[in-house]
Design brief:
Layout: H1 2-5, E1 20-27, E2 31-32, H2 36-47, E3 55-58, E4 65-66, E5 71-78, H3 79-109, E6 116-118, H4 128-137, E7 151-153, H5 155-161, H6 164-174, E8 180-184, H7 190-195, E9 200-204, H8 208-218, E10 223-227, H9 235-239, E11 245-247, H10 250-253, E12 260-264
Parallel strand pairs: 6-11, 7-8, 8-9, 9-10, 10-11
Antiparallel strand pairs: 1-5, 1-12, 2-4, 3-5
Helix pairs in contact: 2-3, 3-4
Length: 265
């Protein structure tokens, strides 16, 4: 909101500060709606600390499937506040709905398997909590919220630690209750990662036949996560290999925002 309004909305000042208005938020495509709390908060902050509250009546809830032309909410209150909050509120709603929509689409594609789809940290800066919430609303699951949740040891970490064994050993010393995930880039490293004590092994940019082989070698000893280059076209074949998780950056970084509009009545 500071980014959008700065020192004040000069265009909204064209409207009398006593003018009242009613507005409706419409959806202009099929989607999964998400982000009601963010819209509520925008208009709450726009009007604070005055008593000129914006009344919002929602016709939908987070997670609802909505159709093109659907009315999402009606808003009533001071016209200036409605106009000043419009863009920021819709930005949240369209972005989170877009995230939830693609998440639901991907989840439905693999619903015939036992795989769990995970998001990544490839989120819009400042919106990680919001986007990860939207992912869960769409039916997928959250990976780490940040670098503080669990260990994800990649090639650069291993190189800096001197060896995979050193990296895992140090991780278990520092935070014995944290899960340790190891990223490997070649099949030959799988057995070593399992032996050295990984809880989860990430198969980074593995070809489909390599993922199949990794599942067979692992034989259920640790959780396997496929990652890297996962798209709508490759998702289902990878899910059908029997991996436990698939992390999909597209859920949060390549989303298409939902087309919304707010109109005064």
């Amino acid at each position: 909101m500071r980014e959008d309004l700065g020192s004040g909305d000069i265009t909204a000042q064209l409207i009398s500060d006593t003018c009242l208005a009613h507005a409706t938020i419409y959806c202009k495509q099929d989607a999964v709606v998400c982000g009601l709390a963010w819209v509520n908060e925008v208009f709450s902050q726009i009007t604070a600390p005055s008593r000129n509250r914006i009344d919002i009546q929602w016709a939908v809830a987070d997670g609802d499937n909505i159709r093109n032309g659907c009315k999402l909410a009606t808003l009533s209150g001071h016209a200036r506040s409605l106009l000043s909050g419009e863009r920021c509120a819709l930005n949240f709603l369209q972005t989170l709905s877009g995230t939830a929509t693609i998440s639901k689409h991907y989840a439905e594609l693999v619903s015939h398997t036992a795989v769990k789809l995970l998001d990544t940290r490839k989120t819009i800066p400042g919106l990680r909590t919001a986007q990860k919430y939207a992912v869960s609303i769409g039916g997928c699951a959250n990976h780490r919220m940040g670098g503080y949740d669990d260990f994800l040891i990649k090639e650069n970490h291993i190189s800096a630690c001197g060896s995979l064994e050193n990296a895992i050993s140090k991780a278990k010393q520092l935070y014995p209750d944290k899960s340790v995930e190891i990223e490997i880039e070649q099949l030959g490293d799988l057995e070593r990662a399992i032996t050295d004590g990984a809880n989860v092994v990430m198969l980074d940019n593995f070809k489909l036949e390599q993922v199949v082989e990794a599942v067979a070698i692992n034989a259920g000893r640790v959780k396997l996560e496929a990652s890297g280059g996962i798209s709508e076209e490759t998702l289902v074949p990878v899910a059908e290999t029997g991996v436990d998780y698939i992390s999909v950056g597209d859920l949060t970084k390549n989303l298409r925002v939902t087309d919304l509009s707010m109109r005064f009545e």
